[in-house]
């Protein structure tokens, strides 16, 4: 995230005013400056304020001067920075210097994308991205690969490693080529390409959230259950934070049931989670050129939709239902895929209990799948804010209650039916509330802000007298 910077300049230096405009490129943030300078050798000190669009703050001039507010917005192409500098003399004069920085159109347009974010993702942008993903799903029939993307970003989690992001999990690390090149992730570069336009249109959401949002939306769009999703996941900073290869499950290990338990128990998941999550194979196909499993084409995949080919687990491989369990149990069609790890669900006693249940009761499968998917999507994540962000009307049952109601501080009517604060603004107010010591579970003392005012006033008076004595 871009920051405002201040540097002092001596009398023999030119005064330079620059605007830093961050350029977001993938996972990197680059900076560019457009600067203008004017010679000045008459003063003994000075200062330069270099601020990026979307940043508000305070800068202090050289010497013992007072503070001047700096505020920049994404729509301004002319940014002003004022420096108030006290000059110690018998007359105690103050000299005021004004610097005007003109940013080029291209720099201003680039900088307009930089916004100070209270959280890892902006709620309104999450909602917008979800609608964009729905359009993408209807155009490309890409449900399976988007589900796989979210799963594989989260599936690297190791509960035995405490440090984030070294513990793996849903942290957006799959966007880096070092992890994308893992054998288990073959073909997922296509999913990233599909989502890049969404990320460009909604830059203020994290990649970690985008991957999980796409996965959950694909399940729901295919007729599956509503997933009680929580957002606000932070992204890893760079490829050095990617975990080593080998954390994702194999399709045909020597002991399939033992292998599944080894992988999923490492993530803190249960036998029920393993079976429920396996049911998502009701969607999609296995392509031998990517995984080494399945037929090149079948009667169910020869005509698409989407690119033809591959072997599916179910006849209607773009419809989310419980047919995966019914087909795996029956094994009646050679054109339908049954991997060793699929067959283990009805062979292992611990798994079979749930597999039989889901084959008979689709409602039970939907209920358990929704909970297991939500659990998987949060593995290893670090949330900002810590309690996460819910973009639907209400947080799901069992979620932490939202006791701080920002709408109470708006100018709308008591029943909030008139125009009040937007959800995004409520979130920002809440973030500021938490930053000054508030808590969802414990309100601030009534005199908290009065104390702040008194402290600031005392410091101002003390500063005045110290300056007078000097």
UniProtKB/TrEMBL annotation:
Signal peptide: none
One protein family per Pfam: peroxidase
TM ranges: 448-469
Cofactors named for this entry: heme b
EC number: 1.11.1.11
Top class in the EC scheme: oxidoreductase
UniProt source species: Sphagnum jensenii
Family note: Belongs to the peroxidase family. Ascorbate peroxidase subfamily.
Domain Plant heme peroxidase family profile: 146-388
Entries under Gene3D superfamilies matching the protein: 1.10.520.10, Peroxidase, domain 2 (1.10.420.10)
Domain of life: Eukaryota
Annotated keywords: Membrane, Oxidoreductase, Transmembrane, Transmembrane helix
InterPro entries: Ccp1-like, Haem_peroxidase, Haem_peroxidase_sf, Peroxidase_I, Peroxidases_heam-ligand_BS
The protein's name in its UniProt record: L-ascorbate peroxidase
UniProt KW Transport keyword: no
């Amino acid at each position: 995230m871009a920051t405002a910077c201040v540097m002092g300049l001596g009398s023999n230096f030119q005064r330079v005013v620059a605007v830093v405009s961050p350029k977001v490129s993938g996972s990197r943030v680059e900076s560019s400056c457009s600067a203008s300078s004017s010679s000045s050798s008459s003063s003994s000190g000075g200062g330069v304020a270099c601020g990026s669009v979307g940043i508000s703050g305070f800068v202090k001039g050289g010497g013992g001067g007072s503070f001047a507010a700096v505020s920049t917005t994404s729509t301004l192409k002319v940014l002003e920075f004022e420096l108030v500098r006290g000059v110690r003399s018998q007359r105690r004069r103050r000299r005021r210097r004004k610097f005007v920085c003109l940013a080029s159109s291209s720099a201003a347009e680039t900088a307009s994308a930089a916004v100070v974010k209270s959280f890892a993702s902006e709620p309104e942008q999450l909602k917008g991205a979800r609608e964009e993903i729905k359009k993408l799903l209807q155009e490309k029939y890409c449900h399976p690969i988007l589900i796989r993307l979210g799963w594989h970003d989260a599936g690297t989690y190791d509960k035995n490693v405490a440090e984030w992001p070294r513990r793996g999990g849903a942290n957006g690390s799959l966007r880096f080529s070092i992890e994308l090149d893992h054998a288990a992730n073959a073909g997922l570069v296509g999913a990233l390409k599909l989502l890049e336009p969404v990320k460009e249109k909604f830059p203020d959401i994290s990649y970690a959230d985008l991957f999980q949002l796409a996965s959950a939306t694909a399940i729901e769009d295919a007729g599956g259950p509503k997933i009680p999703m929580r957002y606000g996941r932070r992204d890893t900073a760079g490829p050095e934070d990617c975990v080593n290869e080998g954390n994702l499950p194999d399709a045909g290990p020597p002991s399939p049931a033992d292998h599944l338990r080894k992988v999923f128990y490492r993530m803190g998941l249960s036998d029920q989670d393993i079976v429920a999550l396996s049911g998502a194979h009701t969607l999609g196909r296995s392509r031998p050129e990517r995984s080494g499993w399945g037929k090149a084409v079948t009667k169910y995949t020869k005509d698409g939709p989407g690119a033809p080919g591959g072997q599916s687990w179910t006849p209607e491989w773009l419809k989310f239902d419980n047919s995966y369990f019914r087909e795996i149990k029956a094994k009646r069609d050679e054109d339908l895929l049954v991997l060793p790890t699929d067959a283990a669900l009805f062979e292992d006693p611990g798994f079979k209990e749930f597999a039989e249940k889901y084959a008979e009761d689709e409602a039970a499968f939907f209920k358990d799948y929704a909970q297991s998917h939500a659990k998987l999507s949060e593995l290893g994540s670090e949330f900002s804010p810590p309690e996460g962000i819910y973009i639907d009307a209400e947080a799901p049952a069992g979620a932490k209650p939202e006791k701080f109601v920002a709408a109470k501080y708006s100018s709308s009517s008591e029943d909030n039916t008139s125009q009040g604060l937007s959800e995004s603004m409520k979130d920002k107010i809440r973030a500021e509330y938490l930053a000054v010591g508030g808590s969802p579970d414990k309100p601030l003392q009534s005199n908290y802000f009065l104390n702040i005012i008194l402290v600031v006033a005392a410091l101002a008076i003390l500063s005045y007298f110290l300056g007078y004595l000097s």
